Structures are given as C-alpha cells and as structure tokens.
C-alpha cells in the first residue's frame, strides 16, 4: 500500500509497515480521537454533517433511528477491506491471524465498554433485535413453559415484544404487560404487584426510543431476582448516552446495536452471565460453532462461539471497535451532562411553538423529543422539516403500545446526540414556527 492508501486506511505513521516488513502487511490502527469533549470538536469527525439536503445544511435529528459515523469508523472499515480482509478463526495464514486478532479485540472492547467480567460473556449478533430473538429461541425455549410469565413493559420497542409473543405461543407461557404512568415512567408499583413465582423473565429497555424514559433498571432487576426471574435489558437507546455497567445492574442479559452507537449497521452484541450462557443451546448450526462434526455425533464450541454460527460481520466488528475507541475517548459524564442540558434547552424552546405537545415528562430521560402538532400529520411535519434540511422521524416508532398509552398511533420525533447543538434546536423550532404560520 502507498502512503496515501495507509492514511485512508486510518493508520498512523507509527503503525505503517517499516522497511524491514512486507509492504502489504496490515496493522490494525490504534485510534486516538481528540482527548476532550465539545460538540463542535465532535462534529469535525463526521463528514456527513457537513453536507446539504435540499440546499440547506443538514440537521440530523434522527439519532434514535441511527447515529452518523465518525471518520475514524469509516476509515477503519475501509482500511480493513483495503488491506486486511480475511476470514477469521479458521485460517493459518498471516492475514487470517490479523483479522482474528482484530475481531477478538472488538469483543474485548465491548466487554470493557459494558463492564463485563470477560470477553467470553459477549456474543456478536447483527443488532439488538437478533440478540433478543437469540435469547428467546435459545434460552426461552428451554426455560419457559405453560403458566410461566414474561413481564414486558408497555414502553418497549416491538423487538422486545414480538419475540416474546412468538416464544410464549410456542411454550404456552404468558406475556404480561407492565403499565405506564402518565409521565411515561414504568408504574413501579404495578410492576412489583405483577411479579410472582410464575415470573421467569423480565425484559426492559434501559431507555425508551419513543419517550426517552430511563427506567430504574437496577431496582427492577433486584426485585425480579428475588422471585428467581432472569432479566434482559435492551440497551439500544442507552449505550450512546451514558455509561453502562452490566455487573452493577446485575443484568442477566444486555443487548445493543452498533449503528445507534456511531458504528456500522449489521453489528451488535449480547452480554450474558456465564452460567446463563452455558444453559443456552445453539440457535443456528454451521461453521465456527462446532468442535467436531460426524453423522453419529457433533460437539459444539465453547461459549461464546457456540452462538456465532457462520462467518461473522468482521468489518462490522472492526468498525464497532473504532466507534468504541472514539466514544470512550471522551468524558462520558461530560457527554451526558451536555446532552441533558441540550434536552432541557430543546424542551423549553419547543414549548414556544403553538399547538406543540411533547409526550412524556419522566425526570430521568435521554434526549428524545416525541411530539404532536395540532392540525398537522406527523408525516407532513417530517416532510416540511426535510425541506429545511432537518431530518426527524415520523410514525409509530416501532412502539405502538407506548403511543397507544397516549391515545396516538403516530407522532413526530426529534432525537439528539452528542454532536447536536443549540443552534440546530433553534433551526428546528424556527421551521416548526413557519409551519404553524402556514395553517
């Protein structure tokens, strides 16, 4: 590779091949993003935030659906395909070894990021949805039976509802909804009353994708464990906004998606306690998840590889590793404080728009702003804002029960990330103000 090729691949000068090494050898970069946090500094790393849409500077307020990717992630993925592409685990050659090392470095980084005790507690999946389905099919089929209860808050994303309905139908267990309070918080009293010795599993999002509510997951988990129930935490919306420690939460399962964490699509992770993992049978069969195969007997690989059939999303793991390196280079508490301040600013600013009503007012929340505007369909709101280069989401947000709690089947949603600014909030409010004036 030439020097410009290496720079595009994300290799620092110290990481480039020396004269004594093969010029084609690939060293996976140790990414070193800026050491301090400010939204302006963060924005410099996102090429897409500097484009225009409909002739206007892009204002990306659809982070709840997916976050944008910093150049460090883009370069890491391009660098892997340009200089390091190989399959993993089963090859004896140099590039296979390098790819395997990068893949397992990604697993170790996820373990550190989540506060897990070991990389062996991390299973790579396509995202939160696949992680939940994996638990439902592998753990649920063998641990749920007639009369067992699965407690599912009304707050949940469809991916944390439908898999449990499917496995409940198969095992004759019951999916029991946990109601919400008017402010969008889980009704903790009702939750405590619904727990019983029949409860085998509690599932809960650590942050709501439609209301922004952050439930008391640690307290809910402790109470569930008193009844011998396992707890699965959907961290898809949480991991980009505040630090997570699965050991402190005492979660039995924790799932997240990379693309909501500044990483590529198609990659995510499932954490599970070692004793829980060991109780899970393979969900899919194939290469990588076996030790030996014969027509008389097949033996399986140890965890976590037993649950990772086939070739994994290797470049996705490389991108996820780069994203984690980038995000954790910042003071996470400072990021959370900034986002909380921006959320407060946005709520105050949006309150000035006539006819606009925000959903949910839980005191502990992430920067999600779901709203209705009198006389305007959510899809029409999104279309209007798009003309001004402002990207939001409109629809049911894969959380129809949560919207039904407010008597709605659709709403508009602006979701903020660490690279958003008060100036962008002002542009949102100004555009909505113009929309109101057209009525």
Largest sheet: 7 strands, mixed
Total number of helical segments?
A: 15
**How much helix, percentage-wise, in residues?**
25-40%
Uncertain stretches of 5 or more adjacent residues:
1-34
Shape: globular
Structural class: alpha/beta
In total, how many beta strands? 17
Average pLDDT, all residues: 91
Question: How much strand?
Answer: 15-25%
Compute the CA-based radius of gyration.
Answer: 23 Å
By oligomeric state, this entry counts as single chain
Strand order of the largest sheet: 4-10-9-8-7-5-6
Notable characteristics:
alpha/beta, single chain, disordered N terminus, 15 helices
In short:
With 439 residues, the protein is α/β, with parallel strands linked by helices. It has helices at residues 3-8, 39-43, 71-83, 94-114, 128-143, 162-171, 188-194, 217-226, 246-249, 274-277, 314-328, 332-350, 378-387, 400-404, 422-438; strands at residues 52-53, 56-57, 59-60, 122-125, 149-153, 174-178, 199-205, 230-234, 253-257, 268-272, 290-293, 298-300, 356-358, 368-373, 390-391, 393-395, 411-415.
């Amino acid at each position: 590779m030439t020097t410009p090729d290496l720079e595009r691949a994300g290799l620092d000068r110290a990481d480039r091949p020396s004269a004594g090494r093969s010029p084609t050898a690939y060293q996976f970069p140790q990414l070193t993003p800026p050491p301090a946090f400010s939204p302006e500094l963060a924005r410099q790393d996102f090429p897409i935030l500097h484009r225009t849409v409909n002739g206007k500077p892009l204002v990306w307020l659809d982070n709840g659906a997916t976050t944008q990717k910093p150049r460090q992630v883009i370069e890491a993925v391009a660098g892997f395909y340009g200089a390091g592409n190989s399959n993993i685990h089963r090859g004896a050659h140099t590039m296979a070894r390098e790819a395997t090392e990068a893949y397992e470095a990604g697993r170790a980084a996820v373990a550190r990021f989540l506060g897990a005790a070991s990389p062996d507690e991390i299973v790579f999946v396509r995202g939160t949805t696949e992680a939940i389905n994996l638990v439902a099919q592998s753990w649920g089929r063998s641990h749920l039976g007639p009369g067992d209860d699965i407690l599912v808050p009304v707050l949940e994303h469809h991916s944390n509802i439908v898999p449990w309905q499917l496995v409940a139908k198969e095992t004759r267990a019951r999916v029991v909804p946990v109601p919400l309070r008017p402010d969008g918080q889980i009704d903790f009293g009702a939750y405590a009353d619904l727990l019983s010795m029949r409860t085998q599993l509690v599932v809960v999002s650590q942050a709501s994708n439609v209301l922004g509510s952050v439930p008391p997951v640690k307290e809910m988990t402790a109470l569930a464990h008193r009844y011998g129930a396992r707890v699965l935490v959907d961290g898809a919306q949480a991991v980009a906004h505040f630090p997570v420690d699965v050991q402190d939460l005492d979660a039995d399962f924790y799932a997240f998606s990379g693309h909501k964490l500044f990483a590529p699509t198609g990659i995510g992770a499932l954490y599970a306690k070692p004793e829980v993992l060991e109780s899970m049978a393979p969900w899919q069969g194939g290469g990588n998840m076996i030790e030996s195969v014969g027509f008389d007997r097949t033996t399986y690989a140890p965890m976590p590889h037993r649950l990772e059939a086939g070739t994994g999303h290797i470049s996705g793991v490389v991108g996820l590793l780069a994203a984690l390196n980038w995000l954790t280079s910042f003071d996470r508490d400072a990021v959370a404080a900034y986002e909380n301040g921006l959320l407060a600013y946005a709520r105050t600013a949006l309150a000035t728009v006539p006819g606009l009503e925000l959903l949910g007012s839980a005191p502990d929340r992430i920067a999600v702003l779901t709203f209705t505007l009198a006389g305007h369909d959510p899809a029409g709101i999104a279309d209007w804002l798009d003309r001004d280069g402002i990207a939001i989401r409109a629809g049911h947000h894969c959380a129809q029960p949560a919207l039904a709690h407010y008597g709605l089947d659709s709403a508009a949603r602006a979701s903020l990330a660490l690279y958003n600014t008060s100036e962008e909030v002002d542009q949102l409010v100004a555009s909505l103000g113009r929309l109101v004036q057209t009525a």
